[in-house]
Amino acid sequence: MGLQVITMKVYRIHEKITKYRFGNPFPTDGVLVKGDPWEKEGMDYFQVEQGTEIRLTYKMDSKDMVWGLGENQRGMNKRGGIYVSYCSDDPRHTPDKKSLYGAHNFMIVDGRERFGLFIDYPGQVAFDVGFSHTDVIEIIIDGTDADIYIIDGEGLREIVRKFFHIIGEGYAPPKWAFGYQQSRWSYPDAKTIEGVAEAFIDHDIPCDAIYLDIDYMEGFKDFTVSEDRFPDFPRFVEKMREKGFRLVPIIDAGVKIEKGYGVYEEGIQGGYFCTDGEGKPFVAAVWPGKVHFPDFLNPEARRWFGLKYKGLIDWGIEGFWNDMNEPAIFYTERGLKKGIELAKQSENENLDMDSFFALKDAFIHMSNHREDYQSMYHHVDGKQVNHHEVHNLYGYYMTRAAAEGFEEIAPNKRFLLFSRASYIGMHRFGGIWTGDNHSWWEHILLNLKMMPSLNMCGFLYAGADTGGFGGDANAQLLIRWTQFSLFTPLFRNHSAIGGRRQEPFSFDQETTEMIRKAIQFRYALIPYIYSEYMKALLHRDMYMLPLAFAYEDEISRRVENQLLVGDGLMIAPIYEENALGRYVWLPEDMLLWKVDDYRERSYEIKRKGHLYLEVGLHEIPVFIRKNKMLIFGNHGRNTEVLDHRELYVVAFIEDRAQYVYYDDDGLTKDYKKEKYTEIRISIERREEDFEIKIENRENRQVKRIHFEMVDIHGNIAKKTVVLAAQ
Ligand code: GLC
């Protein structure tokens, strides 16, 4: 490829944000702010070249680190790897994989220079972050039309906040979506689901939702419910609600081709499906066999599909997960034909290395094939757009279809919604789960590393399949994973068909007991988790952060196995089999609470430095940062019955700490009209005592707060404050 320096248009988006526009990019709606044209020569930081693609290069310093890139393999520091943004349905997340389900082209270079970069391009983008050349970042955009944003700022968090400012406010799930959720592919019928619900009740394990995977449908057809397996579905939904559980059905991207099936017929009549090169609806096969894919990029098709959710909503459903929306393709006629022809030719042949592997590859690589994506088309504003060039928008726009539908169906209601495929900007419409991981210890650590990277890309409502989707979990893995996941906003246990059962009560009694305590702790923490989540959303901030985002020392900057959760906590989970402890780095003195039963509390001060921490299988180490506090309540069998009249605060105070407790109705969007509770707590260490001040706004629930305050020398004081009636 002959590369040449090219011209671009420059826009000033904000004092510290510059947009460089190449060609005529497809509007992704990733960024909401347009900016003004700006006379400026050249691009900051990067050398840019263009031929049939755009290539950016940046020379790194030996100590530079690179953050971000959302859903990807490897470390929080992305240096050393190649990452390819091309939403991929690949269920084996081995360390060599370059593409997972999301395409999150935001990163921060942090070292000699510090700046953020967002490549707004909906086709393939490859990031070589010091892999081919240890000190070079090379980014290859697979086309010539793209917007590139550079964000300057002093601090890492400041850069992220600026980025959040231009991509817009994130999605607020209902409060019940912060409860524990149980899933499995599949609980096939109403009876099985009732059994699962009863088991949660019998074992006294809190739970808010049970999932309906593909088998709830009739023949895997979207927006249908099998009458055989779910007779009187609306009544069943209601009955489950009475027991305290919400049901969350899956919706897949592909619509089954079947005469007489309403969704298919309407899609054909309305011209709502993606087409092939000849203008006929594009055909691919997924769960139900042959399907068409709705053209979510076309606003009319989007609205049509979004309003289809109404049927299930009218039956009492309040949450959905959108799946297979990369979109996943098992096969197309093209791929199948190629494979079969090759197989026929090979019959009775003496296959040598080349011909045998060609035959094998024809089947192995039949799914999710580039050639298929390249022969599918969208229709936007009267123009035909090749799918491959906008591939990364598909899951985002499917989720947008749903969210826009909900907005029309029930404008002020909050729905649970998350997706498998995603692109930056989708966080305004829903969350994500990280797809088909495995019951591997390595995937607990991957989950931990991914969370802050996803947060940086706007996705605060995120989580992984706790216990692992593929493979077989053992008791210990499920315990340790649950002890980590209880801090993630989406807290769902999900597993694949054929694998070992992994509900919290699927193992021995002792395991059930430990998982019960962990889940109860999650429910006790909801005042903190919800408060921190919503504040992050409203203040354009992160909820889970690498230590480097708060501590600048050289060790903290490179810690890859601990996280900050919200304003006050640091966690150091166990992610190794049979480990009964681990090394922890303390960037400052902290207060350690090893949680077993959260109602029994004891604390230890741990001094700044390296620490080997013993952690029994039943223990969850929680560190309260210096001059910070942790607020929590009591658990309940689900989020709806949580009683927050009494709250507890554990504070670790050197001189003073401040905390803002946030709460709202958890069901409506009234928080946008400033209808929320805010309790501002400040604690000051006085000579003999601690002074507590509380400012109370719109609080009708919390009556008393019980304080346990520990000073830097380990002196503990307890006080209860009765809140003024509002
Ligand atoms: C996909 C999803 C998984 C789901 C399965 C069946 O693999 O990622 O979560 O259980 O499909 O619907």
UniProtKB/TrEMBL annotation:
Residues 172-531 form the Glycoside hydrolase family 31 TIM barrel domain. Gene3D superfamilies: 2.60.40.4040, Glycosidases, glycosyl hydrolase (family 31). Pfam families: DUF5110 (PF17137), Gal_mutarotas_2 (PF13802), Glyco_hydro_31_2nd (PF01055), Glyco_hydro_31_3rd (PF21365). GO terms for molecular function: carbohydrate binding; hydrolase activity, hydrolyzing O-glycosyl compounds; oligosaccharide 4-alpha-D-glucosyltransferase activity. Residues 543-629 form the Glycosyl hydrolase family 31 C-terminal domain. PANTHER family: ALPHA-GLUCOSIDASE (PTHR22762), HETEROGLYCAN GLUCOSIDASE 1 (PTHR22762:SF120). Belongs to the glycosyl hydrolase 31 family. This is Oligosaccharide 4-alpha-D-glucosyltransferase. It comes from Thermotalea metallivorans.
